[in-house]
Amino acid sequence: ALGTITTLSSYHWILAWIGLEINTLAIIPLMTKTPHPRAIEAATKYFLTQAAASALILFTSTINAWLTGEWAINTQISPAPSILLSIALCMKLGIAPFHFWLPEVLQGLTLQTGLVMSTWQKIAPMALLIQLSNSVNLNLMLILGLLSTVVGGWGGINQTQIRKVLAFSSIAHLGWMVAILKISPELTLMNFLLYILMTLTLFMTFMSLCTKNIYELSTAWSKSPTLSALSLLSLL
Length: 236
What we know:
Elements (H helix, E strand, L loop, with lengths): L1 H8 L3 H19 L5 H32 L10 H15 L7 H7 L3 H8 L1 H12 L6 H18 L6 H18 L5 H25 L4 H5 L6 H11 L1
Helix pairs in contact: 1-2, 1-7, 2-3, 2-7, 3-4, 3-5, 4-7, 5-9, 6-10, 7-10, 8-9, 9-10, 10-12
């Protein structure tokens, strides 16, 4: 929580970067709480991806400060650093084509940790991306957004594991948010809040049903029809 709050309340790129680093390091023990090779692999992939994105953010914000003389987040950013910052934040969010880590990482986690990964961990980078909405490149955002919606839609079709379906669903949802970011940051924020609410509902339903794959979900109707109906409504 400290990392996200630090990033949300910061006006300086260094403070925002520190918040993102705290955010990343805080979830690693939760990911490795279950001593399973898949969990260790997921934590390693997540750490390496987030470390690369954080390094790019620090490097790019330094270049921007050198060009403009400003470390403030809400000031106008030069075109080249703006593109690199957008790419780094999209990598942290798991937006295509920087999405390859997300399905595999989410599959290696418990549903409880997956819930944190899919909701809380995305708040800080999305907040920074919304603050950059005036400086981001429209064509880049449209390309990344449309690519994410296609990848998220097609990628989730043949999946049998609930967590991978939710990962590709996250990629598709975030793709729509990124596509409209430059046009309407307010609509992006509203979309993100709805995404958090729907994802929270789905994960908590699947945790209550102890469901990990599509087959278990299809047979859960006889055990708990109310929760099964709620999960179907949330998926809609």
